[in-house]
């Protein structure tokens, strides 16, 4: 429950962002470190509301009040165990999730909600720093084999659970690197790829095998997979984008986020020297939602910014939208110095 009166004593706080002019010169993550005591204070705002809607608001069913309490009481090792009980990759969700838990937080009815997402990422970051996150190889092997198609977060989570259950798991990925949209969709400054690579190392050490550059259905048939493995998990994501058939869509220089972001990530990886859609000197403009992620790489690649999304607002009824907008705005730095 945290501190019984914590929510009356402390306001919601989130980490500060690095200054925009500095952020625009690198690809590192946006936020400054928050500090252990600040995290404990935020966790103490969780108020033992009795019916924690955050728990059902979280698509993973994260046991949020439990780990808020453990962090407040400085029991970080227990906190990561509670967090890992429902979430294979808190370092991904703690950075990327739009946090519907916070929109569901009971304290948010008349105050700012608990800073759940930040507490989540602080727990797992500390766990990695303390070397508490180790490979968990299966105690015994079942003799069964499973093919997982796709190495995005869905495929990785399935592969990790199945490997730990003792099955022989091979994860097939058509791309040259693992991670799906975590690798080529999400910009580096929203989640640095080293966090993904660290998890992949853990998974390899547990026994999951990865095969890249293999397009299932092209390089290996579905029938062959079914024959070679006892079970097949399809976790191919949705690479196809939804088009926006409006006047001007076909003009030169109008790109889908997923046309722009993978090459941006490849520039950072060193695969490409130059971006195929050079932005220098151009007016970088974007809509709302996830496509806004395309704007920040464009700014870092030299575009001028123009924000077409509504400004974030604080009222609770706007919280979900505001959170998303604020979360996305943080990468932009084009307006208001967020
Ligand atoms: C631009 C953008 C920004 C986003 N930002 C966020 C965010 O900030 N926060 C958030 O929560 N969500 C965000 N999302 C959504 C999130 O990335 C997806 O919900 C998530 O990646 C889906 O995971 P997945 O594993 O199902 O699929 P994916 O991540 O798409 O992974 C599927 C993988 O399967 C592989 N594959 C497909 N078919 C085959 C085949 N036949 N053979 C072998 N491999 C195959 C693909 O190459 C891919 O690597 C964003 C999405 C986009 C497009
Ligand atoms: S940030 Fe997302 S994953 Fe984390 S507790 Fe909230 S809803 Fe669940």
Task: Describe the protein's architecture and organization.
- With about 350 residues, the protein is an alpha/beta fold.
- Mean pLDDT is about 90; it is low at about 310-338.
- Helix 7 (about 90-95) packs antiparallel against helix 9.
- The protein has 3 domains: about 5-130, Alpha-helical ferredoxin (Fumarate Reductase Iron-sulfur Protein, Chain B, domain 2, Orthogonal Bundle), CATH 1.10.1060.10; about 145-235, FAD/NAD(P)-binding domain; about 255-330, no CATH class.
- It is built from 16 helices and 6 strands.
- The structure holds flavin-adenine dinucleotide and iron/sulfur cluster.
- Iron/sulfur cluster binds near residues 58, 93, 99 and 120.
- Iron/sulfur cluster binds near residues 99 and 120.
Spell out the blueprint of helices and strands.
Elements: H1 6-9, H2 20-23, H3 36-43, H4 53-57, H5 64-72, H6 76-84, H7 90-96, H8 100-104, H9 116-129, E1 145-149, H10 153-164, E2 168-172, H11 181-184, H12 193-206, E3 209-211, H13 222-228, E4 231-234, H14 257-269, E5 283-286, H15 295-300, E6 304-307, H16 319-332
């Amino acid at each position: 429950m945290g501190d019984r009166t914590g929510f009356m004593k402390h306001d919601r706080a989130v980490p500060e962002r690095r200054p925009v002019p500095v952020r625009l010169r690198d690809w590192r993550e946006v936020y400054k470190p928050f500090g252990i005591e600040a995290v404990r204070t935020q966790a103490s705002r969780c108020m033992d509301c009795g019916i924690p809607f955050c728990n059902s608001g979280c698509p993973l069913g994260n046991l949020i009040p439990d780990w808020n309490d453990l962090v407040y009481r400085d029991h970080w090792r227990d906190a990561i165990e509670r967090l890992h009980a429902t979430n294979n990759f808190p370092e991904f969700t703690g950075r990327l999730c739009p946090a519907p838990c916070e929109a569901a937080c009971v304290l948010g009815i008349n105050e700012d909600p608990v800073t759940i997402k930040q507490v989540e990422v602080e727990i797992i970051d500390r766990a990695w720093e303390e070397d508490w996150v180790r490979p968990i190889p299966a105690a015994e092997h079942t003799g069964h084999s499973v093919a997982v198609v796709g190495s995005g977060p869905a495929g990785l989570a399935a592969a990790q659970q199945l490997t730990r259950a003792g099955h022989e798991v091979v994860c097939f990925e058509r791309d040259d690197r693992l991670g799906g949209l975590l690798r080529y969709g999400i910009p580096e400054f929203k989640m640095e790829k080293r966090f993904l690579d660290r998890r992949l190392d853990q998974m390899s050490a547990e026994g999951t095998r990865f095969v890249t550059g293999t397009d299932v259905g092209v390089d290996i048939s579905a029938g062959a997979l079914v024959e070679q493995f006892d079970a097949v998990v399809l976790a191919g994501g949705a690479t196809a984008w939804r088009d926006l058939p409006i006047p001007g869509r076909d003009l030169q220089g109008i790109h889908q986020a997923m046309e722009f972001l993978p090459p941006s990530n490849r520039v950072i990886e060193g695969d490409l020297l130059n971006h195929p859609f050079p932005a220098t000197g151009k007016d970088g403009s974007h809509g709302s939602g996830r496509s806004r992620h395309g704007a920040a790489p464009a700014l870092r690649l030299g575009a001028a910014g123009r924000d077409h999304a509504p400004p974030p607002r604080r009222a609770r009824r706007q919280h979900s939208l505001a959170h998303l907008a604020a979360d996305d705005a943080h990468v932009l730095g084009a307006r208001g110095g967020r």
